[in-house]
Design a protein that fits this description.
about 130 residues, six-stranded antiparallel β-sheet, 6 strands
Length: about 130
């Protein structure tokens, strides 16, 4: 099974949202099947087969996530990030302002789902087929 150090090494190559598909491909080969990233403090829960789980510590100062989601604002921020126009700290702040609490990535289904604080799905997107 994967270690947090292996995932961290793969993540170190990510400079913008444009690098996301390559990152997903690499951690999938490590055995990660699913993970959730929390906007508030940046911690991530990684899951593998047979209930294997590894969690990172909080990575950043705490952000307050807006109580009400704004999908138009979020979609614009996501598009900019995926085009490499923003770095991760900026994207994280944009998510908080847009009411995005977390995103969950299912590597088997190749989808990324963004959720608000109430647990509503704000956006479900396919991960590049280049994996």
């Amino acid at each position: 099974m994967f270690t947090l150090n292996q995932v961290k090494q793969a993540h170190s190559k990510v400079k913008s949202g444009a690098d996301f598909p390559s990152y997903i491909s690499e951690i999938k080969t490590l055995g990660v099947v699913y993970y959730q990233t929390y906007v508030t403090d940046g911690h991530i829960d990684y899951y593998g087969a047979n209930n294997y789980r590894r969690s990172t510590a909080s990575k950043y100062d705490s952000l307050t996530v807006a109580e009400t989601s704004n999908s138009v604002q979020f979609n614009a921020a996501l598009k900019a990030h995926q085009q490499g126009k923003t770095d991760y700290p900026t994207f994280r702040c944009d998510c908080a302002k847009s009411g995005i609490e977390k995103w969950a990535v299912c590597l088997e289904k190749r989808i990324c789902t963004y959720y608000d604080k109430a647990g509503n799905k704000i956006l479900v997107e396919e991960i590049s087929s280049k994996l």
